[in-house]
Write a structure and sequence with these properties.
Largest sheet: none
Order of helices and strands: HHH
Helix content: 40-55%
Mean pLDDT: 87
Strand content: under 5%
Distance between the termini: 28 Å
Number of strands: 0
Radius of gyration: 10 Å
Number of helices: 3
Oligomer: single chain
Low-confidence stretches: none
Shape: globular
Length: 55
């Protein structure tokens, strides 16, 4: 079962991406599809959260 993508989860995923963690590792940690992690990375998801910018 996939976890709900909350603003807090998006922030944590974004921070891990900026640290250089791999998308597949982040996806596994949060129970997400790797595509959702990619969407956070490119700004397609979570764009409403201030302080985050696309890679």
């Amino acid at each position: 079962m996939a976890s709900k993508l909350t603003d807090d989860t998006i922030r944590k995923v974004w921070e891990m991406l900026r640290k250089g963690d791999h998308q597949h590792d982040i996806a596994a940690r949060f129970g997400l599809n790797q595509g959702r992690v990619s969407e956070i990375n490119t700004g397609k998801r979570g764009g409403h959260i201030t302080g985050l910018s696309a890679a």
